[in-house]
Every structure is written in C-alpha cells, then in structure tokens.
Request: fold
Amino acid sequence: MLFFVVTGLWPHPCGSLAPSRLATLRRYSLSSPSRGLVGRRLYPLQPTRLSIPVLMASAAAPAGAGRTISRVVMAREQAEGDGARVRRSIGSRALPDLDPFLLLDEFRVTPPAGFPTHPHRGMQTVTYMLSGAFQHEDNRGNAGIIGPGSLQWMLAGSGLQHSEMPATDGPNIGLQLWLTLPAADKMRPPDYQEVSAESVPTATSPDGATRVRVLAGDAYGVMAAVITTSPILYLDVDIDAGATATLPVPDDYAGFTYVLRGTGTFGVNGTAAEHGSCCLLADGETGALSITAGPQGIRFVLVAGTPVREPIFKHGPFVMNSREELRQAFKDYQNGLF
Reply:
C-alpha cells in the first residue's frame, strides 16, 4: 500500500498571508517549520518523555474465525480550537491516521469555547452529536444547528471556510471524524448531508439486547440515510449488560471501535475496552466482530471503510495527494478562492 504523510518539510507556506488569514491558520496549522499538526492540534514533532497509551491485544484467532483487535489506543485529552477540550485517538501521535480515517475527536465544549472560522480542502468531516447542540455556518451561506442524536456529513471538496460553535450552555458533547477523499473527489464542489435524530435509522438484534443507530452502511438489514463517496460503515451500538452482539464487517474494510460508555470485550481474542478505548480491527481478516458487554452494558461506535490507498499529504485542515497540491491549497486560501 502506497501511503505517505508529509508535514512541515518545507518553509511555512503561510508566511505571506494576510494578517486575518494568518491568524486563522495559526490556530489550525503550523506555527514554525519545527512543529507539525495532525488534524487541528499543534504538537512537537520531536519525541517527548510522555508515555503513549497503546495496548497490544492478545494473540489473533485462526483465519476465518471472526475479527480480532490488533491493539488499543487510549484517547488523550487536549486543548483544541478556541478554549475547547477534546479526547483524541486517531490523529494523535500514537495513531496518526488509519486509512481512510484521519482523525477522531470526542469533544466536550461549553461556551464561549468552540471552533471559530477555519478552512478545509480535500477531505470530509462527520459530526455526530451525543448531547447538546452545535451551530454550523460557512462562507457559502449554509447554516444550521445539529442537535443531540443528529449527524452532519460535510464534504469539503475544493474548499470552504466554516465555524462550529456550541448552541447550548452545555456541555455540548459529540464525535468528529475526518476522512480523506479519493483524488477524483478532492476538488468536487462542497456538499452537506444532515440527518436529524428522528431520521437516523435504527435496528435491533434478533434477541433484542442490542440497539444500533445506523449512521452509515447497514446493520441487521437496516440501511443508513446518508450516501457516502466510498463504502463506509458507521454504527452507534448499545448492548445490554452481559449480552453479546455480532456485527458483520465487510472483508476489505479497515476500521475501529471507540467506547463511549461502559466496558466490554471486543473480537474473538476478547480484548478489554472502556470509555476512550479505540480498538483497531486487525488487518487482513474476514468475518464479523463479536462484542460482549460488561456489567453496566456498553455503548460504542463501530467505524470501518475501504482504504483509499493513495498518497496523502496533509497539513492542518488541507489533505491532498501531492506536495504541489498542498502548496496550491494554501495559495488558493491566501487568494480568497474558498
């Protein structure tokens, strides 16, 4: 698989930006060539003495026995945006990306904190509200509020600028997932799909012990309302205490689970997980993923999709296929083209 991540290998491209645009990108981009950015968070490129919470899972099961978990990455809390706090797993130093996924944040935001106006190009963002609400507005005249249980799937494509700010006194809690786009779709016009909580399809296991909100893909014969540019599975799963669920995952999908509440074990190798655990599905396996809930039950998201398998050059909110395309993204932003 050809997969490159290039960050901060040339002089800072924002040096000649207008002051207002430079101030914006300083929140979401590099501040000097010696520092790098994954997602929307600045961090030193040099190793630190902090231990990275990565747990290796137990041995894999025989081929065809079902999905196993290869390792667990614990989300770490950090500052983000303007005074906000997030727990990041994908997009962290422990797990820079997982093709096609670039970032997963569990955010918890109370006013006046939030994510003021910032740009995107060449990627998608998926915002799923767990409680509270967020107000979205962009420079193309689109605006709205995403309430609890609602989903917004934004295709940034050729580029836009938007803000995401809390719409209640909070706390406003949710997940934001970033995905790369295939080269053929990176310069598509921006687009949105918004699904209200009432319109998210739901499914129940035959034994009634597992309930699934189908955000993308399908579960127990129920299809999602959104249409994705490439095959994606995104399920919000709630399992009763002590019950076991089996969820099919297509053979060619890469993916992970992220625990929102409770405890349980994942995969045929019985990997233990708790709130904040990002459990990676082992590569090259086939079959379904089995999950057994702990004594308080468990709620988690299962996210998987087909890898794009293209070069990825990312710098802050821009995700392209070459260094030159990345330079062009900064030039176009500087010149007010999106």
